[in-house]
């Protein structure tokens, strides 16, 4: 459930960012700090809306692929394991999204910030801190002994009753 969960988390984390920060709060768009696409002009807003749309399409693709992989795993293996473990991998995906997007877009490329203006560095660092907290919290959620025992019992489709002895 690692790959489906992480992809779902990446996609859903991107949705939260795009819907909440770009559309509802309107704190930034994808290219507002880049310089050539100011959100204060019609042309700049049109370019930013296109970039936001491409961003949303990519996060939708990640979520759709994650959902498809999850569906396929459930059909192939007769289930997906504990919901807590899957949710943990999704939270890891969301945290990874925040860390990568925050480091690349906010700090390296500087194409936008969480909230531009006063305290923008503090907002950007808080976004990274949230990503790190999500990553740690998700990892803790995946540490489920019962799931690992059940997973270790089934190897190549064969049930191994002595799998508990290795833990």
What characteristics describe this protein?
two-stranded antiparallel ribbon; single chain; mainly alpha; 2 strands; 2% strand
| CA-CA gap between termini | 20 Å
Q: How would you sum up the major sheet?
A: 2 strands, antiparallel
**Rough outline:** elongated
Percentage of β-strand residues? under 5%
- In N-to-C order, the SSE pattern is HHHHHEE
DSSP summary: helix tally: 5
Taken together, the total number of domains comes to 1
Q: Give the low-confidence spans.
A: 162-167
Radius of gyration: 20 Å
For the largest sheet, list the strands in their spatial order. Answer: 1-2
Structure classification: mainly alpha
Report helical residue fraction: over 70%
Average of the residue pLDDT scores: 88
Total beta-strand segments: 2
Structural account:
There is one protein chain. The protein is mainly alpha-helical and 167 residues long. It has one domain (2-166). The chain is 70% helix and 2% strand. A two-stranded antiparallel sheet has the order 1-2. Strand 1 and strand 2 form a beta hairpin. The longest helix has 36 residues, at 42-77. The radius of gyration is 20 Å and the shape is elongated. The protein starts with a helix and ends in an 8-residue tail after the last strand. The model is unreliable at 162-167 (pLDDT under 50).
């Amino acid at each position: 459930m690692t790959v489906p969960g992480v992809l779902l988390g990446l996609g859903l984390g991107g949705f939260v960012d795009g819907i909440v920060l770009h559309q509802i709060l309107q704190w930034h768009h994808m290219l507002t700090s880049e310089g050539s696409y100011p959100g204060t002009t019609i042309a700049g807003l049109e370019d930013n809306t296109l970039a936001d749309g491409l961003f949303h399409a990519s996060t939708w693709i990640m979520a759709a692929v994650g959902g498809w992989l999850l569906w396929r795993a459930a059909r192939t293996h007769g289930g997906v394991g504990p919901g807590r473990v899957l949710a943990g991998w999704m939270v890891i995906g969301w945290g990874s999204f925040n860390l990568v997007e925050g480091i690349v877009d906010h700090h390296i490329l500087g194409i936008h910030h969480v909230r531009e203006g006063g305290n923008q560095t503090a907002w950007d660092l808080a976004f990274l801190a949230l990503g790190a907290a999500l990553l740690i919290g998700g990892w803790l959620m995946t540490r489920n002994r019962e799931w690992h025992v059940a997973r270790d019992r089934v190897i190549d489709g064969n049930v191994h009753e002595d799998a508990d002895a290795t833990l």
